[in-house]
Amino acid sequence: MKKRVAIFISGGGSNMVRLLEDMALPGHAAEPVLVLANSADAAGLAKAEAMGVKAVSVDHRPFKGDRPAFEAALQAELDQVQPDILCLAGFMRVLTEGFVAPWEGRMLNIHPSLLPKYKGLHTHARALEAGDKEHGCTVHLVTPALDDGPILGQARIAVEPGDTPDSLASRVLVQEHKLYPAVLRQFAVGNTTPVTL
């Protein structure tokens, strides 16, 4: 029985596309059942539909800061498809402990830094400001603390002379597109040995 996967996005969904492409390959232990965005104009929704995956939006703006109500609406969508695994792929909303706790151990996130360094935003600029020699991305299990769960995989790149936040971001994204599918492929069969790229 394949594991059922839901993916949360906020924008173009490039990591989502890579996850969907990988799950479509023969022998994969997971299958996508839903792509959900927090805005109806997220470009990734149309991409998911074009790839044959149910795509819905739950706009966070009408909830006006009432995060529990927003998260109840998210959970209502999940209840319709009963996923086993939830993948955050560029989902730009912080989820509360009330939402995360029931999913703990089954929710993955990809973050553009070598955690535990640079939790939160502006990771590429912060790596440059710190003079880091290497940078990268991390897939981790989601816990109520921001960007803080057990690490399931990391990919590293060298920081080059003259790098900017944008140039770092573009090179890290290439690694994200390799790392996230590799981690999900393992995770779907119960293997939590960290992936290193």
From TrEMBL:
Binding site for (6R)-10-formyltetrahydrofolate: 67, 109
Superkingdom: Bacteria
Residues the record lists as binding N(1)-(5-phospho-beta-D-ribosyl)glycinamide: 13-15
Pfam families: Formyl_trans_N
Catalytic activity: N(1)-(5-phospho-beta-D-ribosyl)glycinamide + (6R)-10-formyltetrahydrofolate = N(2)-formyl-N(1)-(5-phospho-beta-D-ribosyl)glycinamide + (6S)-5,6,7,8-tetrahydrofolate + H(+)
Keywords for this protein: Purine biosynthesis, Transferase
Domain Formyl transferase N-terminal: 3-184
Site, as annotated: Raises pKa of active site His: 147
Entry's EC annotation: 2.1.2.2
Entries under Gene3D superfamilies matching the protein: Formyl transferase, N-terminal domain (3.40.50.170)
Active site residues according to the UniProt entry: 111
Family in the record: Belongs to the GART family.
Known role: Catalyzes the transfer of a formyl group from 10-formyltetrahydrofolate to 5-phospho-ribosyl-glycinamide (GAR), producing 5-phospho-ribosyl-N-formylglycinamide (FGAR) and tetrahydrofolate.
Protein name, entry field: Phosphoribosylglycinamide formyltransferase
UniProt organism field: Shimia sagamensis
Organismal lineage: Bacteria, Pseudomonadati, Pseudomonadota, Alphaproteobacteria, Rhodobacterales
Gene: purN
